[in-house]
């Protein structure tokens, strides 16, 4: 999908009611998996695909910055060691799902109206697909204060 399609998808989800979990998590673009018999071949391909997805993320950020103002960025690094199944965890629902998916790329995010839109590139494990994803949530919980 090209950037205008991603933006249109996000705009559409901003108008939809949020599901019970309080967010929409959208896979905008997903690569193939990288579990071929020759890991050396896959490594080079993985690096190439990751670079393409990061470029798509930057194109999306440029389009959303023009629409909603400059994005903010937050690291997901501190979430990498959390257990999403720990009921005692204070993880907000969106962040719990990102941890569950294994997507720890830095989040770019925008406040728009009473929603937060976030986007990033996720890659759970070396064999798994690379994913350009976005989320629309009605809660700023878990995001740095404005």
| Order of H and E elements | HEHEHEEE
Distance between the termini: 31 Å
Q: Specify the overall morphology.
A: globular
User: Largest beta sheet: what is the strand line-up?
Assistant: 1-5-4-3-2
How many beta strands in the DSSP annotation?
Answer: 5
What does the oligomeric state look like here? single chain
Q: Profile the largest sheet.
A: 5 strands, antiparallel
**Low-pLDDT residue spans:** none
Class based on secondary structure composition and strand pairing: alpha+beta
- Overall pLDDT confidence: 88
**In percent, how helical is the residue content?**
25-40%
Percent of sequence in beta strands: 15-25%
Helix run count: 3
Based on CA atoms alone, the radius of gyration comes out at 15 Å
Topology:
Elements: H1 3-15, E1 23-30, H2 39-68, E2 72-74, H3 93-101, E3 107-112, E4 115-122, E5 131-137
Antiparallel strand pairs: 1-5, 2-3, 3-4, 4-5
List keywords for this structure.
146 residues; alpha+beta; five-stranded antiparallel beta sheet; 3 helices; 36% helix; globular
Written account of the structure:
The protein has a five-stranded antiparallel sheet, sandwiched between helices. Strand 3 and strand 4 form a beta hairpin. It has three helices and five strands; from the N terminus they run H-E-H-E-H-E-E-E. The longest helix has 30 residues. The chain is an alpha+beta fold.
